[in-house]
Specification:
The protein is an alpha/beta fold. The protein has two domains: 164 residues, Aspartate Aminotransferase, domain 1, CATH 3.90.1150.10; 267 residues, 3-Layer(aba) Sandwich (Aspartate Aminotransferase, domain 2), CATH 3.40.640.10. Helix content is 34%, strand content 18%. The chain is built from eleven helices and 19 strands. Strands 6-14-13-12-11-7-10 form a seven-stranded mixed beta sheet, sandwiched between helices. The chain has a four-stranded mixed beta sheet with strand order 3-4-5-17. The chain has a four-stranded antiparallel beta sheet with strand order 15-16-19-18. Strand 1 and strand 2 form a beta hairpin.
């Protein structure tokens, strides 16, 4: 663990060369303290890029609002809910209501607790290699080993905080569009065990990108059907994939099934303020009739967050930003296929729209026992930044992800791929040394 002055550093990427000091930003670019500008190639919280003038204007206007907790009526809050449902969920007639939160972690925690209360069941289900946040029950369903909420070091391994719930893991549909690995869930051999696990569970929470796992619509529909059959509620975690990251407003819309709850966060306010949300079906809303959902927070539905959400929805709908990832999907697929073919150090590449994962040969993610001082993925990031793009790691030792703002151009994507290509030269050198 490092610190700068009195600030404790929590960067996912190790090493000073891969964790630059940022002093400003505009569009898809970061301005660094040393005077350079680099492309922000991995930031799912900035769908409209950095410092969008309309988001800035909305946030400034909301700064004059009174201090309001979530229990007091505020017109802007009601309008934000109407905008979210009327714009991003347009045509989804099953949607009942929305409740705003401070983050997706908090939204997931509250949604899972609600499902436990409604079903009377305590166990929960997610899929292998999932990440759902670091708070409460959301942390419990974060099953990637590096995010147990404790401490890790190369010397002492993982010192994890005690677990709070029984968690079942479904197999992950981990095929790969670029490198051709088959989907291990395609044969359906996992379904009987999944049915048994869901019969005990209050809810199944699935996301669409974490751990480099990109679901097919068929997998979603199978899980949704098993959940409904067994009495478990289905929550779609669209923290990363919502608001256009994979093309269209949400990933769940590519399947036939529809969730009981959708959790949102990260990008929904376009970086204007911390925000999350739970969107609830009409069916579930009817079950809450006559009750009070007993959770409360001072800063949920803050006026600044509501203004930023409304600005994001207006801009994305007006300018078609939420559709751009679908249009660029083929361009990334082709470009990353060429990069992967040039680098023997690359083990797996998969993705959708404007979210892609590059996994390198090295320790299996299941065998993670504590952070190396400078993992291979972090060193690749440092090399890529020399070529002008800031790529992120996922906290694992061998995984990188590419997720630029949705306003990125093809020329800027080319620059990202050139930087990635440069960074992977280092990984190739290490791979050849180990192979030899």
């Amino acid at each position: 663990m490092t610190h700068s002055g009195h600030l404790l550093s929590t960067s996912l990427t190790s090493g000073d060369s891969s964790s630059p000091r940022i002093v400003g930003g505009h569009g898809v670019w970061f301005e660094l303290a040393d005077g350079r500008e680099v492309i922000d190639a991995s930031n799912t919280a900035a769908p409209l890029g950095h410092c969008h003038p309309e988001v800035i204007e909305a946030v400034r206007g909301a700064a004059s609002a009174p201090v309001l907790n979530e229990g007091w009526t505020w017109a802007e809050r009601e309008q934000a809910a109407d905008d979210l449902i009327g714009t991003a969920f347009a045509g989804e007639d099953w949607v009942g209501a929305v409740r705003f939160f401070i983050s997706a972690s908090e939204a997931n925690d509250a949604a899972l607790a609600l499902c436990q209360a409604l079903t009377g069941r305590a166990p929960l289900t997610t899929r292998e290699r999932a990440y759902h946040g670091g708070a409460g029950l959301a942390r419990e369903l974060t099953v990637q080993p590096q995010w147990h909420g404790g401490l890790s070091s190369q010397a002492k391994g993982v010192l994890a905080a005690p677990r709070l719930a029984t968690v079942h893991e479904l197999p992950a549909p981990r095929g790969a569009r670029v490198t051709g690995q088959p989907d291990p869930t395609a044969d359906g051999g996992w379904i009987d065990q999944a049915r048994a696990d869901l019969a005990q569970s209050a809810a199944v929470l699935i996301d669409y990108s974490q751990g480099g796992t990109y679901h097919t619509p068929a997998y979603q529909d199978q899980v949704a059907g098993l959940a409904r059959e067994s009495g478990a509620l289905w929550i779609a975690d669209e923290t990363v994939t919502g608001f256009g990251r994979v093309g269209g407003w949400f990933q769940f819309q590519y399947g036939q099934s529809r969730p009981d709850l959708v959790t949102l966060g990260k990008c929904m306010s376009a970086g204007g303020a911390a925000a999350g949300a739970v969107v609830m079906s009409r069916e579930l809303l009817d079950r809450l009739d006559g009750t009070s959902w007993q959770s409360y927070s001072t800063y949920r539905s803050h006026p600044v967050a509501m203004a930023a959400i409304r600005a994001h929805l207006r801009i994305s709908a007006r300018d078609g930003i939420y559709q751009r990832a679908a249009a660029l999907d083929g361009y990334l697929l082709d470009g990353l296929s060429k990069v992967a073919a040039r680098h023997p150090s690359v083990a797996r590449v998969d993705g959708r729209g404007l979210h892609w994962t590059v996994e390198l040969h090295g320790p299996d993610w299941r065998d993670w026992r504590g952070q190396e001082s400078l993992p291979l993925a972090s060193r690749v990031v440092g090399r890529a930044m020399e070529a002008g793009a800031l790529i992120a790691t996922s906290g694992e030792q061998t995984s990188l992800f590419i997720a630029p703002p949705l306003i990125v151009t093809e020329a800027e994507i080319d620059a990202i791929l050139i930087a990635l290509d440069h960074g992977l030269d280092l990984a190739d050198e290490e791979y050849a040394a180990h192979a030899g």
